[in-house]
Amino acid sequence: MTVSTTKFRAGLCIASAFFPILIAAWNIHRDVAYSDWQILSNSVNLTAFLWLGLTVFHYRRTRTKNAAWLFALFPIAFAEPILLLCLWLSVAHPFARAKIKTPEKPNDAMTLIVNYYQRGRYDDAIRAAQDWMQRHPEDSLYDQIALCYLAKAAKDSGRKEQWIQEAVSNYDKDLEAHKMNTVDVELYEVGRGFESAGDLSTHDSCLYYGRAVNAFVQEVQFIQGDSYTAYGHTTPLAPVQRENQKALERVKSKIAKAGCKGAS
């Protein structure tokens, strides 16, 4: 074993200790979200253990004080993996979950769902919505679940189409559960969801764009007139009508650009 080989291995150990932090910073820059199992199994953790393996190998080959000092880099190499472990415990551990107070009012449930969503904890947001509907069958939160699945699709390219299908399925459930009023914007909201599904999908964008167009067209009959009054508050309908028309024209343009069959 030459001196140059020893120095090269030592330098590699020092450099690799910083790989986990660099990868974590790059993932933050790309806005990467981890699912529950990815918090434990990911490139950050793997590179940390790679550093440990290299350092142990180098020390066993040299048995010198300089090689032993390389273990002082442990806090640097494992800083991010330890933080991810703490995050996993806070998300997955049953005792950690038990600390979250069960919402008692619809507004509390929505606040919890939105909080999870904004923090990228989409699975927790979905569970919170499902738990609320299980205890309150009269309330429909399928649209919130659909939004979470669309967010998962945007972050998880490997299972993107699966999450899109889940989102669309929940939008369908939302339409089935929703009781349309004389003035109602639910079809517009669902149409926007179908449009997002089309934007994300690799194989079925035309299908989802078509469903978005249908939703916007059907919405027109529920936003007729100049205004509507509910709970003592009068809301003008002109802005809603403009937004619905803009959405309809926008999706028709996307259909044409995508070359969908049957597009006019």
The CATH topology assignment of the largest domain is: Serine Threonine Protein Phosphatase 5, Tetratricopeptide repeat
Please tally the β strands and state the result: 2
- Strand neighbour order, sheet with most strands: 1-2
CATH H-level superfamily title of the largest domain: Tetratricopeptide repeat domain
Describe the sheet with the most strands: 2 strands, antiparallel
Number of domains: 2
From the alpha-carbon coordinates, what is the Rg to the nearest angstrom? 26 Å
Question: What is the structural class?
Answer: mainly alpha
Description:
29% of the residues are buried. The longest helix is centred in the last third of the chain and has 21 residues, at 238-258. The protein has helices at residues 3-16, 19-29, 43-62, 65-69, 74-77, 79-92, 94-98, 106-118, 122-135, 142-155, 160-177, 186-200, 205-219, 238-258; strands spanning 227-230, 233-236. With 264 residues, it is mainly alpha-helical. The chain has two domains: 3-95; 101-258, Serine Threonine Protein Phosphatase 5, Tetratricopeptide repeat, CATH 1.25.40. The protein is elongated, with a radius of gyration of 26 Å. The protein has a two-stranded antiparallel ribbon with strand order 1-2.
